[in-house]
Design a protein that fits this description.
mainly alpha; DNA-binding; 121 residues; 12% strand; 6 helices; homodimer; 59% helix
Chain lengths: 121, 121
Amino acid sequence: MEQEIKLDIEPLLCRVEDALSILVGKWKPIILLYLIKNGTQRFSELKRSIPGITQKMLTNQLRELEEEDIIQRVVYPVVPPRVEYSITEYGSSLQPILDTMHQWGEKHLLHKRQKFKQNNE
Amino acid sequence: MEQEIKLDIEPLLCRVEDALSILVGKWKPIILLYLIKNGTQRFSELKRSIPGITQKMLTNQLRELEEEDIIQRVVYPVVPPRVEYSITEYGSSLQPILDTMHQWGEKHLLHKRQKFKQNNE
DNA sequence: CGGCATCCTCGAAGATACTG
DNA sequence: CAGTATCTTCGAGGATGCCG
């Protein structure tokens, strides 16, 4: 198991990486935030809402999130196909992490601006 | 600016990525947790404490964290060189994120085990 | 001791085309 | 509409060697 090394070092804290690994992925945070805020979304809705993402990457990231039970994929057997994605109850347990990160991110933005000012005085 | 796209989508939430970008890096979480838990550490102490990391990567990750004012680097002009790293006050503001992630990570471990069980019944 | 410089590997991410 | 299937690019991370 790959975990052994980490466990040997910090048995109480190393689980940080597990959470991190789920959030890491170029488009995962945006996808999650979008599903949390706007609820169930079709594939094409997500694609339209996330400028710059390719179909391949959207599929890819959605599959990975689904694999971890963070989101749910529902296929309606109609023509043309209709596939809807939504946050699972389990997935919504990620929200405290996202909130904390967002709050920190805003403070960090201010911090960087102050630093920038100082460097130019 | 690269931020524009993200800002257009989720002005209130997109700061998540800023926090994420600071934590992302193969060795950053471990380095941070180690410095938080054990306080000031010499370069060689960190290297010994983190099995598998190369000198290059340790230097690299430390520099990136220093760049964001998360950690502090103090060089003592002695022979042989002595360089000490520690968390800054600002850096310690990351702790709520790390804590939240760790807690979630533990729950996630249980969740995965249950899922594994179900799949084998 | 605590680096830096160089070269290399490998996988995440992107571009593009095709399909039930 | 919601995907696969390929091919390609690019940079994080790793291996190794040298240095004040």
